[in-house]
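To whoever is covering the structure queue this week,

Two jobs came back overnight. Logging them here so there's a record in the thread.

Job A:
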Amino acid sequence: MLAAAQRLRRSSDFAAAIRGGRRASRGTVVVHLDSAGTPAPTSSPTTTASEPVRSAGAGHEPAPARAGFVVSKAVGGAVARNKVRRRLRHLVRDRLPGLPPDSTLVVRALPGAADAAYARLGTDLDAAIAAALAPRKSSRRSR
């Protein structure tokens, strides 16, 4: 299970990662990685006595990498989708510390993920994350 701080829950977080991130597809998964991340939520101006006021200055650590999963009905029925989601969540949990801080990862399962072995999902996920992290190659030709 991923910690609450490492999970994506809002559709706006998913949309930001998909629109602004790099996409890489390998075998059974598509990965969207937004290494810019999302800005940290700001606290409300009213605080209670039990909540200490935190300054945004020194001592501020970057937010941990966060992950979300998209497993559509094209993958299969509810049992197959939940099985794929559980497998991907377990695979991503070990890979999150290797991602840049404050990054957002969205893993989308393709229909073949339901029949894929656990090891195959792992190798596809590793290859997709590596491709998303790799620097972009210039596709422009020099004239």
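Job B:
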Amino acid sequence: MLLRATEVEMSEINAAVAANARLTFIHTLTVYLKDSNAYGNTYFARYFEWQGICREEWFFECISRDMLQKEGVFITKHAEQDYLQETFPFQDISCEMNTFDIKKCSFWLEFRFYADGKAVSVGRQQIVFANHAKQITALPERVIARIKRYAK
């Protein structure tokens, strides 16, 4: 016997699925001549800059438009970047970002950069939340819930 869910039940199920959906933040950029080195490929430090741009847009668009300025500050404790393939001026780069290892006071971000559908670089950052006296403090629960939506 097949039981059918009512419209209300389906609405509740869909809301629960949406609330627990795992999202990926995507930011697209174009490489320009200013981003290249003497050999004509993308200067490695640009990927750190692009991590920051992607992270800041994600904070603003998805976490808190005021960047939690009244409550504290985000501090980058660790950042790294692995280079897989060269990129060149005028290529479009897509950065996909997710969170992982989310804790009370910190979380990690993973940045995956793609050009022409191929992985070109992967980076990670550990972010710590601190009060205005720069003492590590707990992230607000509402913020942790938003960060977890992007967990992989």
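Note for Job B: The radius of gyration is 19 Å.

Please reply-all if you pick these up so we don't duplicate work.
Q.
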